[in-house]
Amino acid sequence: MTSADIHFSPGEFLAPAVDWLNANLHGVFKAISQVIETVLGGVESALLAPHPYLMIGIVGGLAFFFANKRVALFAVSMLAFCLFSGLWVASMQTIALVSVAVLISVAVAFPLGVLAARVKKVDEAFLPVLNIMQTVPPWVYLIPAVMLFSLGRVPAIIATIVYGIPPMLRLTTLAFKQLPKEFLELGQAIGASPRSILFKIELPTAAPTLLVGLNQCILLSLAMVVLAGLVGAGGLGAEVTRGLTRMEMGLGLRAGLAIVAVALLLDRLSRGALQRHSPARLN
Description:
Layout: H1 10-24, H2 26-48, H3 52-66, H4 69-84, H5 88-118, H6 120-135, H7 142-149, H8 153-177, H9 181-189, H10 194-227, H11 235-245, H12 249-277
Helix pairs in contact: 2-5, 3-4, 4-12, 5-6, 5-8, 5-10, 5-11, 6-8, 7-8, 8-10, 9-10, 10-12, 11-12
């Protein structure tokens, strides 16, 4: 027996498990897919229903309200580039994918982060898992998602959610660990309920660090959504894939620049909100 005769194939062990899951939990996977498709379709419709000029104005107004005039002008210019490059629909599809994925990632990561900050054993159990999750290359997350949900937008969303959870969870844990004990003791001293302490003391104090986690979650989710164009997720990732496979360099370049525009847009919006809460953290 030579070394060439010795090989290990994980697929030989995983294939039966995947077949069993698909055969016995098909209804569950189908229900999950329908929920995600419904939510994603609703967000896409909301983004694409208004005229592009109106949507650009709405985003600019929101950016001015939550951040400042500079961020608003920057957001308008980035969306205008997506429009005039002929990739408005694909850009809105990408923003919808990122929005849904980030919303679910935060909904999962935030309570787990708070729990980890308060229970040391939970934090110790999460630490090696998070280390592994943030070490694994992003495209690896697509493999099990495609195995269970086939091709399309649903596996892209699932993979993006999983990929976006670690940074938000880590920074939520850090934010609540760094809370000044004097603030918590003061709340307890005046007889505030645990809920009041959470919403009136802990969350406002932890907000800057939480917004950093949200910023990282958004950018990592965008990176995964673009990569998920390889599995039929649509959006700008699909345009890049189409440009590369058909050797249409013009389309690939425009789509790549549109991805940069969307990334800068999302980054500036989240950083603008962060800067409004704590300018020193961005210096």
